[in-house]
């Protein structure tokens, strides 16, 4: 039973660590400390291994919980000693499994935690509209994209922004009479991700 508890604890830790790089930007937004958003981006390359570790550990825990008991184990049991607590039950293992799945899937639904930052439609002279593609280092998931979009949309004069962690950039359209490319780059750098030339 003690080994099973250790497996459960390890699977929870592995699931949380696997999604830590994507959870951090959301926590930073909530805490108002956006500069720490990229703190755990170095974990992203290890994410597939951490996911595999979580799945293997949970599979082993379920196997140990569901495997048939041997004749010797049944004969050796005392009713007082064998009474399982909630922490040793299938229900608790089920809760841990659901929690691990929710943590592992976090990058795919993290967008829901960011407030809507659509700017009001303003009339802009087309001669003042500028477009720029800004290369960004450190984004590793959809949550990173949303964090960059959120910070840049706080600036006045932003018409559209679309960040892509896969491309490592942000495409921005803005009114050059209201904001500058330098201000946009400062907003991106404030997230903890770095604008690169």
Structure overview:
The protein has 197 residues and is of the alpha+beta class. The protein has two domains: 2-110; 114-196, Alpha-Beta Plaits (2-Layer Sandwich), CATH 3.30.70.100. The protein is built from eight helices and four strands, in the order H-H-H-H-H-H-E-H-E-E-H-E. The chain has a four-stranded antiparallel β-sheet. The protein is elongated. It starts with a helix and ends with a strand. The relative contact order is 0.16.
What are the key terms here?
197 residues; alpha+beta; Alpha-Beta Plaits; 2 domains; 4-stranded antiparallel sheet; 4 strands
Number of domains: 2
Low-confidence stretches: none
Mean pLDDT: 79
Helix content: 40-55%
What's the topology here?
Layout: H1 2-31, H2 47-66, H3 71-76, H4 79-82, H5 90-104, H6 106-109, E1 129-137, H7 142-153, E2 158-164, E3 169-175, H8 181-189, E4 194-196
Helix pairs in contact: 1-2, 1-5, 1-7, 2-5
Short recap of the structure:
The chain has helices spanning 2-31, 47-66, 71-76, 79-82, 90-104, 106-109, 142-153, 181-189, and strands spanning 129-137, 158-164, 169-175, 194-196. It has 197 residues and is α+β, with helices and mostly antiparallel strands.
